[in-house]
Amino acid sequence: MPVQRTLLGQPLALRMPPRRFQLLVVFVVLFIATVYAFGAPSADSIPTYEQVKDAVKDPHLPELPALSDIKDHIPKLPTELPELPNLPVPDIFSPPAHKPPDQANSTASSSYGAIRWLADFKWHIGFSQKVTLDENRAVLPPLAIRPPIYTYYEPKSKQDKKATQAENRLILAWRRAWWAQGFKPIVLNHKDAMGPQYEMVQRMKLEPSAELEFFRWLAWAKQGGGILANWLTLPMAQFDNPMISFLRRGEFPKLSRVESLQNGIFFGESAAVDNAIQEAINNKLLQDVPANKDKIAKLALQDGGIVVNLLSADVAVDKKANGLAYYNTDVVNNKYKTVRDKLSNTTHVEGLELLADLINSHLHLVFQETHPDGIAIVKPLPEHTTALTYNAIEIGRNLTQCPSSPMPNSCPPNRQKCKPCNPNKPLPFNLVPTFKNSTKLYSIGVVPHPYTLTLLHYTREDIDENFLIEAERDLWLKALTKELLGPNHSELFRVLFFKEEVASLRKASHSLWLTAERTTQADLEWIFGFNLPQSASPNKEPSSPSKDSELIIFPRPSEPKGTEGVEAEEERWIRKEEERLEKAREVLSQSHKAKKEDTVRAKVKQVEDWNLFDTEAWRFARAFSARRRNERKDWEEQEKRYSGSERKAGVKTGGGRWSDRFK
Ligand SMILES: *[C@@H]1O[C@H](CO)[C@@H](O)[C@H](O)[C@H]1NC(C)=O
Ligand SMILES: *[C@@H]1O[C@H](CO)[C@@H](O)[C@H](O)[C@H]1NC(C)=O
Ligand SMILES: *[C@@H]1O[C@H](CO)[C@@H](O)[C@H](O)[C@H]1NC(C)=O
Ligand SMILES: *[C@@H]1O[C@H](CO)[C@@H](O)[C@H](O)[C@H]1NC(C)=O
Ligand SMILES: *[C@@H]1O[C@H](CO)[C@@H](O)[C@H](O)[C@H]1NC(C)=O
């Protein structure tokens, strides 16, 4: 009598499956082994269609039945093939893993479905899906921690509303510039300074400017030290400038200021700041302010401001810092006459606006100086992809335009030897077919979904399965990195290289990656740290936007020249491309709305599975930019009640093509 096996008391029927299933199982196992041998999804190469076809035709197994016997059990083999590499192969025989839990603020909506991501230190992987178990969730590096930088602002009492708004715009410029450099700029006010010491200082009846300086320090101390800057102190250097990198590290062994920047910036640990304040307040001079009025006024004028000069010894003075510019009254009076003349008169508000324009132009100039090789619009597969590059070219043209400024020939205060922008010698602006590895060049790339790219590259109106298996895989990524990485690297290597370019902190300051399907771009001024010129001279000469404006605007650079060695496309073919791009957007947007079994969705999925690495690159770039946007928006939401917020500065959000609209 056969042994009756039981499980939890229930009799268990162990029957061998029919022979044809046994064969199928054998085949599947062998097939997976083959996939492994070629290096499953994580390895260098996904088996090609030919390899799989050969494996099916000639499995090197004498006892395996003829292909025709198996065929019935592997329905429609060739058309299903694109899906095969996508199987998380090692998981087939083990229990399914749990999806990693959702993290806070890790989704964004878009016309192409929700964009989700997971921040993980192990983001250097070929396929996010292996970790997230969700094809729409990309693994991104953890958000870089932004060290706070504080400034203190209190509008003068009885100040004209317009002047306050103009000052808010200057503070907004300050916030953007520091945000772009990787900081979290925070604007403090008198409420942040309040406490017993605040009242003590108030009772001393100091001069307003000396009192203000004390309040700044008090507000800063309550935040626990760190960096305190004036809102006219801006980072005026490239991302990896030693001073700015030092500040970003957030470790300050000594309470310090910077030579020649007066009280423009201080940094130090909490305890050092507290001690300094205590010592300054205890200074004998402050016990009878009216009697020591002149002495105090003299101290307040010395470098570093009143608090520092009441100490028995100066704080440390950093002598080598060259990355910061402080636009205080002295600097403006001495160097920027046009602005000074407006500021020191009834035209104060206009003066503040011109100062904002001047600072913006200097930030833009520094960007141009840090990228002397100009702007490169990366356009892999240039023959049929012109329609993909419109947004990138628009941004590139404005970046290469000479900045609008009241004093176009002036230099930032910390870079007196700068080379002012010359409209007759514009920054190089080129279309390049492959990505270049240079920190002197700013690259703007447009990442297409493989469906979009397939339509455009093969000039097709639609994609069917039979066509797909003739298409080359991961075309975009290969073309992008062809020159830089050579022909012999795997797609895995290429996609990791790409992710690094998009996301690593330093490299990200030399390139911008857009996705081709998005029609609007947001937050550019937070990414660059300055406003791109929004108007241009109507002719070849510099001009002013209006008769009595002091602002000088420059002509808009022309479109970049075509890619070398590639014939310019005819207008009618470009129109066709635009139609195809629209079509692709349509299909992708439908596909996310459609049910799982819908044909549109299946079609898109097939293209994605055929181009696993291109898809991964697209998802990564998309999630990275969505997260950057979310981070920015969240933070603006938190800060909107404070000075320098977009709301207080009267900056409109929403509406318009280059608006905050994300979809
Ligand atoms: C998520 O967003 C909310 C506001 O939308 C914010 O208060 C919170 O700090 C954010 N969390 C993280 C982890 O960023
Ligand atoms: C103020 O402006 C008026 C006319 O706009 C000018 O005549 C005068 O010199 C200016 N004063 C100063 C101090 O710049
Ligand atoms: C890019 O350039 C940097 C510095 O010049 C170099 O260290 C790096 O190896 C280069 N990367 C590639 C992929 O060529
Ligand atoms: C790439 O591989 C081919 C064939 O293996 C070899 O001939 C060629 O030199 C390699 N190229 C590079 C740049 O390594
Ligand atoms: C570029 O400048 C033009 C005007 O010259 C403006 O209409 C457009 O909005 C600007 N684009 C960006 C991205 O700033």
Tell me about this structure.
The protein has 663 residues and is α/β, with parallel strands linked by helices. Among the domains are: 148-326; 360-611 and 655-660, no CATH class. Helices cover 42% and strands 10% of the residues. The protein has 25 helices and 17 strands. It has a six-stranded mixed β-sheet with strand order 7-6-8-11-10-12, sandwiched between helices. The termini are far apart. The structure holds 2-acetamido-2-deoxy-beta-D-glucopyranose (5 copies). One 2-acetamido-2-deoxy-beta-D-glucopyranose is lined by residues 341, 344-345.
Q: Which characteristics define this entry?
A:
single chain, 663 residues, alpha/beta, 6-stranded mixed β-sheet, 4-stranded parallel β-sheet, 25 helices, 17 strands, 42% helix, 10% strand, disordered C terminus, binds 2-acetamido-2-deoxy-beta-D-glucopyranose
Detail the topology: elements first, then pairings.
Blueprint: E1 6-7, E2 10-11, H1 19-38, H2 49-57, H3 67-71, H4 77-80, E3 107-108, E4 115-119, H5 128-132, E5 137-140, E6 148-152, H6 161-180, E7 184-188, H7 190-193, H8 196-204, H9 208-222, E8 225-229, E9 233-235, H10 242-249, E10 256-258, E11 265-269, H11 270-282, H12 293-301, H13 305-309, E12 316-318, E13 324-326, H14 329-335, H15 337-343, H16 348-370, E14 374-378, H17 390-400, E15 429-432, E16 441-447, H18 450-457, H19 465-468, H20 475-485, H21 491-503, E17 511-515, H22 524-528, H23 571-593, H24 599-610, H25 612-639
Parallel strand pairs: 4-5, 6-7, 6-8, 10-12, 14-15, 14-16, 16-17
Antiparallel strand pairs: 1-2, 3-4, 8-11, 9-13, 10-11
Residues 486-488 line the site of one 2-acetamido-2-deoxy-beta-D-glucopyranose.
Keywords: Membrane, Transmembrane, Transmembrane helix
Transmembrane segments: 21-39
Biased composition (Polar residues): 535-546
